[in-house]
Input
Amino acid sequence: MHMPDMRLAHLHPLRWFGQRDRGFVALRRAARAAIIMPAMFAVGDKVIGNPQVATFAAFGSFAMLLLVDFGGPMSERLQAEAALAVIGGVLSSRSPDRPARLRRCAAKPGRGRRSV
Output
């Protein structure tokens, strides 16, 4: 059975985090995601008025902020993030009626599937 390390229990929370997360990298990433994700959802829902765009924006910002790790200096990271955003936007907008086509194919058996 693993016992928790009680030697660090008396430390201030920021000092405890500092010992476990050098430079507060994980804490900063989590704080960015906690600010940006709801903001992107609000823009999609309230400004654009489309719940699908809001959900896509929230999950897209989550993926870009927490699942992708760009290295190098700040200018290179900003270029990589901008390139990812542009490429993702282009790829996701290539076929705006794709969900409708998929629904039509699913509604009619035998259509949209290849016979082997």
